[in-house]
């Protein structure tokens, strides 16, 4: 029986690299995004959803459960970045970041983890950020949301230990995605999205008796 991975925000950037990697390895892949303008591999199933909205998160979860018998891997990747400072960013920025970067992962995990618990098997990856551990000027609500996501990951890790479900927090630094569009820096100054996907695959392939709890990744020359 084919294994199944669910990846949120899987049409671009890090999410797309994860989708491509696991599809290449023979997984059935289910992904979602607000829209899909990309051509996805044959074994990828797409569902249109805006995960900043709880009702659409739950609709996506229902779609997953009605499409496959089980989920072996869940990657909570959906997120976005807006620069700003707490004292001057636009009203509503915090709510938007929390709804997308944190609540989507919270609600989707709750909706899908029950079957993993029953089977005593599964793997959850949460795509955090170096902004989850390092506050910086102009990070504002993004840092707050990513600190919170790492906190959720830590709690899940403790809660799911007895059920043999592995939980890994991925904390990438500057990765060449649309978030950096327009920045006048050479691509060599960034990590490639494929590098993140390869690390996730490596972590997944470890024996089930071992888990990489947190993986911090940065460009060789450091943060930007």
Notes on the protein architecture:
The protein has a single domain (4-217), classed as 3-Layer(aba) Sandwich (Rossmann fold), CATH 3.40.50. Helix content is 39%, strand content 16%. It contains five helices and seven strands; from the N terminus they run βαββαβαβαβαβ. A seven-stranded parallel beta sheet has the order 3-2-1-4-5-6-7, with helices on both faces. Helix 1 (13-24) crosses helix 5, helix 2 runs parallel beside helix 3 and helix 3 (93-119) runs parallel beside helix 4 (140-160). The longest helix has 27 residues, at 93-119. This is SDR family oxidoreductase. Keywords: Oxidoreductase.
Specify the CATH homologous superfamily.
NAD(P)-binding Rossmann-like Domain
Distance between the termini: 43 Å
**Unreliable runs:** none
Order of helices and strands: EHEEHEHEHEHE
Helix content: 25-40%
Strand order of the largest sheet: 3-2-1-4-5-6-7
Beta-strand percent range: 15-25%
Query: In the residues, how many domains can be counted?
Result: 1
The secondary structure category is alpha/beta
Topology-level CATH name: Rossmann fold
Total number of strands: 7
Question: What is the radius of gyration computed over CA atoms, rounded to a whole number of angstroms?
Answer: 17 Å
Concise overview:
Its EC number is 1.-.-.-. With 224 residues, the protein is α/β, with parallel strands linked by helices.
Q: Which key phrases capture this entry?
A:
seven-stranded parallel beta sheet; single chain; oxidoreductase activity; 224 residues; Rossmann fold; alpha/beta; NAD(P)-bd_dom_sf
């Amino acid at each position: 029986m084919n294994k199944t991975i669910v990846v949120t925000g899987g049409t671009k950037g890090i999410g797309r690299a994860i989708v491509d990697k696991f599809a290449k390895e023979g997984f059935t892949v289910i992904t979602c995004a607000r829209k899909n303008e990309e051509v996805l591999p044959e074994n990828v199933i797409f569902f249109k959803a805006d995960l900043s909205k709880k009702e659409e998160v739950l609709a996506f979860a229902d779609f997953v459960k009605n499409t496959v018998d089980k989920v072996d891997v869940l990657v909570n990747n959906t997120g976005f970045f807006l620069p700003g400072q707490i004292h001057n960013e636009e009203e509503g920025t915090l709510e938007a970041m929390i709804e997308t970067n944190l609540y989507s992962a919270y609600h989707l995990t709750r909706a899908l983890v029950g079957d993993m618990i029953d089977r005593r098997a599964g793997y959850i990856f949460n795509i955090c950020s170096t902004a989850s551990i390092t506050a910086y000027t102009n990070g504002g609500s993004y840092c707050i949301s990513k600190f919170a996501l790492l906190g959720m990951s830590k709690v899940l890790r403790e809660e799911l230990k007895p059920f043999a479900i592995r939980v890994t927090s991925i904390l990438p630094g500057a990765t060449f995605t649309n978030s950096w569009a327009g920045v006048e820096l050479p691509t060599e100054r960034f990590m490639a999205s494929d590098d993140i996907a390869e690390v996730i695959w490596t972590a997944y392939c470890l024996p089930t008796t071992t888990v990489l709890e947190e993986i911090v990744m940065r460009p060789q020359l450091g943060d930007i």
